[in-house]
Batch of 2 targets.
Target 1
Amino acid sequence: MDIRFLGHACFELSDGDTRILIDPFLTGNPKAAASADEMNPTHIFLTHGHSDHYGDVVDIAKRTNAQVVAIVEMANELGEEGVENVSDPNIGGTVEFDGGWVRLTPAWHTSTTPKGQVNTPAGLVINFAGKTVYHLGDTSLFSDLQLVKQREGEIDVALMCIGGHYTMDPVDGVVAAELVGAKQVIPCHYNTFPPIEQDAEKFKQDVKASEVVVLEPGETHSI
Ligand code: NI
Ligand code: MN
């Protein structure tokens, strides 16, 4: 599987003909490594409704007919926006797709869509191409982060916010890495805007529980 970091919290996971786009905030993202019209996903997964995650989901989904997975209230709103291929789990729910599955997990944060709908944020546990990837979404540090590995067994890669201010910071991220227990951690949601400037190399040195892989926007990590 290739994990391509597209800036902020946006990643593309790809294997064969399947391309999963997570949190497609590209238009207006100062760190975006691609434009929305360059993306051709087969699936789009959303952690929550904030504009720095929801991003270009409507435009990309309408153009590609990618299967969108979002928490039920947001899924309903996407349907009203004209997105036709939408799956609507709630926290704890699993959606199967060709080649894998995705489950919504708790994340301690808030969530409002650009249209003002208040809903519940999530993390994403993704089983795909024989690997398990855990996108924590926007979250603070909380102890139930450790439940994912108890449930799934080994987590290959955690995509972890470390920017602080809106989410946990690198100091809390070190503890989160211990709780999550992934083989590898890719930090994200930092250095996009002034309030979330952080030193990812220091985070890499401080994390002992996992190998930290720091990606620049546009870089790909293969597992
Ligand atoms: Ni957020
Ligand atoms: Mn965010």
Target 2
Amino acid sequence: MNAQPHYDLHCHSTVSDGTLTPTAIVERAAARGVDVLALTDHDEIAGLDEARLAAAGAGLRFIDGTELSVSWRDLTLHIVGLGIDPHSAVLVEGMRVIRSGRLGRARLIGKALERVGIVGAFEGAARFAANEQLLSRTHFARFLVEAGHVKDVRDVFKRYLTPGKPGYVEHEWASLADVVNWIHGAGGQAVLAHPGRYKINRQGMRELLAEFRDRGGDAIEVLTSSHTHAQYAEYAGYALHFGFLASCGSDYHGPGESWMDFGDLPPMPPGLTPVWHAWT
Ligand code: AMP
Ligand code: MN
Ligand code: MN
Ligand code: MN
């Protein structure tokens, strides 16, 4: 282990919209120098047992995690839960409710794409999803690339799957208050994921961070593949100003689909208190 352990506290497996199994995720992270890893599948914890077992074999420390979908004002936010008890009844039930909306949304996305001449998208996306409970826009993106409608996954989001585009469907996820309470009820820490990605002005960001803090939010991601170098500094400043702990994660989804691989995160900027500071 290095003098400074390398933490990566955000990534995805085939249990949500990643392309590697939980075991393969852990093995790749270990091979690329990650010492402490959290698996944070969207609205799901079904990969944690497998990942934990693989981590024990690979000699890295494993943190139970998830990334929950939230509707806040007109935005979708993602809240990562770290150190959660996967057996927590309140969290398990909360995630079940969030997931239950996904199938209906996916059918609506399929219909919306049909209206612009793309047939078979629902069935096509479902073929890419290992977990039928967890159909994601990412699975639609993979189908649209495979079917030759767009050149790569990022282009699909720009052209089809984001607000105002033909395959985007409004959806009501969980509330911010509920999600923070579920994570805390499961003994975990609530982390605002990739804050720089939300389409919001500076005043809106301050309101979001103040509300998240007031509802008990613990940390924000300062280092994430979604942030530019300028945003590392910007969100370090927000963490200090609002008294949040700082988290970091690659948000890795699989080879060829991610901005950043395991091991690529820079060190946490000095002066911040990391989210792991009180972990034993
Ligand atoms: P969903 O939870 O089904 O709405 O899907 C959200 C997922 O889509 C995110 O977790 C990302 O993996 C992916 N995603 C969202 N926006 C983009 C984008 N602009 N480019 C690539 N992937 C994206
Ligand atoms: Mn994702
Ligand atoms: Mn996210
Ligand atoms: Mn993520």
